Amino acid sequence: MRRLHPLPDASSPGPSTCAEECARLCTHDGLAAVLRADKALLHWRAMRRLGDTGLAEHAVQETLLRGWKACASYDPSRGSVRTWLLTIERNILTDIARMRSARPGDAHWDEIGDVAEGHCARPDFTDGLADGLLVDELLAHLPGPQRDAVVQVILRDRAYQDVAADLGVPVGTVKTRVHYALRSLRRLPLSA
Q: How many domains is the chain built from?
């Protein structure tokens, strides 16, 4: 009979290979926090891309497993744990899509048509939610004046003149802030 080993303390940093700034997926509390905060988003993205509940669940499990195994390689300077996991999941979803395309006999033409029609029919409210999370995370990297200008001009679709009048600055200043903010956002890594 195999003997079960006790699980490590919830506060322990995990395996000896984990660094001080690991993703904390190696601890009970860290994994529970990720499951509470991000499991639904991970499942939704997988379901949306794959269109199959079983494959979506497999993708989420594989994402969490790879994240757990690579816990020590997490670099907080490159983004949050959420964006790190979303990047891992994107790679897994790409692998699954490639695998499915290598075996086209698994899908029937009428199923492909149904998935394509459902995918392009109209945006889901969760699209806005996921986009909003990403936009919030990207905007957090900008200085306050640039962030305010981008929010007003780009996200709220307001005229430069109106924003300048509200902020009490020249129109050229608002245009410059938006320009430099967008340039900074383009230079951020995709996982930011």
A: 2
